[in-house]
Specification:
The protein is of the alpha+beta class. It has a domain of about 80 residues: Alpha-Beta Plaits, CATH 3.30.70. The chain has 3 helices and 4 strands. A 4-stranded antiparallel sheet has the order 2-3-1-4, covered by helices on one side. A hairpin with a 5-residue loop joins strand 2 and strand 3. Helix 1 crosses helix 2. It is globular.
């Protein structure tokens, strides 16, 4: 008796757009709640979306207002670097990235805060 192979679930690009839009809003709200003191940084959020066409992921991110291309980020692996849209460059940027990463993780994505000092 043979069984049919399992069909992989279809990736939901509309959900990705909605989740990234909500995450960026959460990041903006977090940035707005702190002053921009502290050390300047180039923090971002690394988002890994394996086995999906880059053009479709980039289009879904662009629809959410995020410009990103797939890159290889060393020990983080390949993925998409999301930069916060807040006007800050220190504590505001840090707070925004923490909120964005937290929101995306809660939505089920493989996302992490990427720390980089200026």
């Amino acid at each position: 008796m043979s069984t049919a192979p399992a069909v992989a679930a279809q990736f939901d690009f509309a959900k990705l757009t909605a989740d990234v839009t909500a995450a960026m809003l959460a990041g903006q709200q977090a940035a707005d709640s702190v002053s921009d003191g502290g050390s300047c940084n180039l923090d971002g959020v690394h988002l890994s979306i394996p086995r999906q066409r880059e053009a479709k992921v980039v289009a879904a991110l662009a629809e959410a207002g995020v410009h990103s291309e797939k890159g290889n980020y060393g020990w983080l692996g390949s993925g998409y670097m999301l930069n916060p849209s807040s006007a800050g460059q220190a504590d505001k940027r840090y707070a925004a990235c923490e909120a964005i990463a937290k929101h995306l993780k809660a939505a089920g994505y493989d996302a992490c805060h990427f720390y980089l000092m200026d």
